[in-house]
Design goal:
Elements: E1 7-8, E2 14-19, H1 23-34, E3 39-43, E4 55-59, E5 62-66, H2 78-85, E6 91-94, E7 104-107, H3 113-118, E8 123-126, E9 130-136, E10 139-144, E11 147-156, H4 164-167, H5 172-176, E12 181-193, E13 202-204, E14 210-215, E15 226-233, H6 235-241, H7 246-261, E16 270-283, E17 290-292, E18 297-299, H8 309-326
Parallel strand pairs: 1-11, 2-3, 2-11, 3-8, 11-18
Antiparallel strand pairs: 4-5, 6-7, 9-10, 10-11, 12-15, 12-16, 13-14, 14-15, 17-18
Helix pairs in contact: 1-8
Length: about 325
Amino acid sequence: MTSSDPAYIGADMLDTIVIGAGMAGIACAQALTEAGRQVLILDKGRGIGGRMATRRVTSAWGTMRFDHGAQYFTVGHPAFAAMLASLPGAVAAWDAAGQRDRQRYVGTPGMAGLPRAMAEGLDVRQGVEATALRPRAEGWEVVTLDHRFAAARVVLTVPAPQVAALIGVNHPLSLMLAAVEMAPCLTLMAAFPAHSPAPFISLRSENGPLAWIAQDSTKPTRPEFATAWVAQANPDWSVAYLEEDQDSIVARMLPLLCDSIGTAPEYALYSAAHRWRYARVTVPLGRPFLQDAGSRLYLGGDWCLGPRVEAAWQSGTAIAHNILELETV
């Protein structure tokens, strides 16, 4: 090891390293930890939850929250429902006007509240970006910008297009991801005075530039001093303006939102944009996870089964069950 090499952390090899603290990664780590396994979660972001994200904004009017990633989730699998029931206070029903077949649920006090509650007691290192995975005689070496970690197995729950950068474009698992497709999404967060026009709670459009608009302040436990909105652009519009700076994105999206809700941009108390490069799964893998059993490498995420919070949970949980049932420490 040269002086410029990242230093090893810890003298012993870990049981499992999970890369990615989104729903799939947290679900996998939670199940493994409950079974007595030693698990370390690494995530390059500052918050737990991945696309189950909540932007917290402190202003002169008070603290606002915007769910600028996943807007809600539904529940179908009994085991997923049981997990949610074990976390009282982390989830609430959102009685959104126009909801179709299933009850919608949200995390509290924001969408990120659910993965944060699930992560209680887990070893999560935030702001730690994995830059490479290297096979060892027994297990893996995970290289980050500052450190190196050794583990018997690695679970990658990053977006599918980011996998190849870590394991190589010619790795058999990278080649199996070729059919998976994910679309970007540009998101606008905007707040207006409490008594501003609010013609709907949520609105989905198949043809307009804004594919989804939600009155975020109608969700349970959200502040009521302002009317908060989240608008998400459709994939084609997002691709067209993906590389613009955030001020330019706001300048394009805010008038579109105002036209939809019947107000003017100058009345906005707050506005900001967020760029999701891999926001929504458009073509899933079609199976819960991928594995290279010989090297104990696993890949998972919502991209395996579909663009749903529950799908991400199913993927992460399926990986954990496979490890516990078929592998020894």
